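User: Before I run my own analysis I want an independent prediction to cross-check against. Here's the chain; please return only the structure tokens and, at the end, one sentence I can use as a sanity check.
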Amino acid sequence: MIIMVREKSRRSFLVSAGRILVLLLCVCGIALNRSAGSQNAAAQSSGPTQCDRGMSRQSVHAATLQAAAMVVTGNPATPAKTGNSQDAPAGMVWISGGRFWMGTNHLEDAQPVHQVEVKGFWIDQTDVTNEEFARFVQATGYVTVAERPLDPKEFPDLAPEDLAPGAVVFTSPAAPVSFENPLAWWRFVRGANWRHPNGPNSDLQGKEKYPVVQIAWRDAVAYAKWAGKRLPTEAEWEFASRGGRDRQEYAWGNELRPQGKWMANTFQGHFPDKNTSEDGFAGVAPVASFPPNDFGLYDMSGNVWQWVSDWYRPDYYAQLGREEIAVNPQGPSDSFDPLEPGVVKRVQKGGSYLCTDQYCERYIAGARGKGDPDTGTNHLGFRCVRAQ
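Assistant: Structure tokens:
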């Protein structure tokens, strides 16, 4: 039995410790939230839509406590001009803007494929790294969401010791498990945060050039504001990620492995228990470990998910599709997920090192993820943009 406590605020759920929690989440982009949501709708989905299921940091935390107790074709895009002028912001690439076909026919919430025009913008060449985020924290004293204790007002049924800070961490099971039990590979780990992405026994030594992870959307926004930047819109991010290769399957073309070469950090082997690391990495890779796209941008597919500014709605593309050309779309005015009504989410893009064709292929161009703004994971980061 699931006991749910609805708050008047956006944060809406608490599962009492000692109760069995049955929820599902997307392995490639955990749609972390504050509500158990619509279980019937989630139970009916299968195949690629399994990546639409969601679970919050609190969901995994409650379950962890309980466990301890117990390709499209068409016209080419308008090409964008890129380059770094003498006054270019450090580490950023200029995208002059243009038209492209946004979305993919592979995923229901990324349809219909529709034409979009974006204005020019600067974008970070890589994800924000650990050393860059550390400079922000040192300058401001900022404390990320994962480093803050859980609020006892939100979790009145938890013992004081269970309010300790922590975050959600991927933990590979020792043997094959059912895809219907994501809690077999996701755990709430006390002491996990951006400094200790996999738990208190992990650290950032030698990982200065790795993408910072365990970052909630609000953490990313705080960093961007400090840096004089902002998060990209979903349209800006996707336009940049495609590198001018309009309506192609991947950021690098239509072949997953051109000439047998892995082009992004994804999951090979048998998910989730055996990663054969054919691409050279079992977990997060340093930024720029794989070839850049045609705009000179790294890791626009795989490695870690990336936050964007848009609210998430599965019907947003249908709204944009009514326009002949959607010009510089900023996202919907609100959030709605039919699997979890009333729980707000932001869009995530790009997929991660956990994406696989066995369970979730959201490393493909045009795919979307979603997540609770107050939750990060050890496969979620961000990059920033800036206007001219």
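Sanity check: The helical segments are 39-44, 57-69, 130-140, 217-226, 234-242, 316-320.
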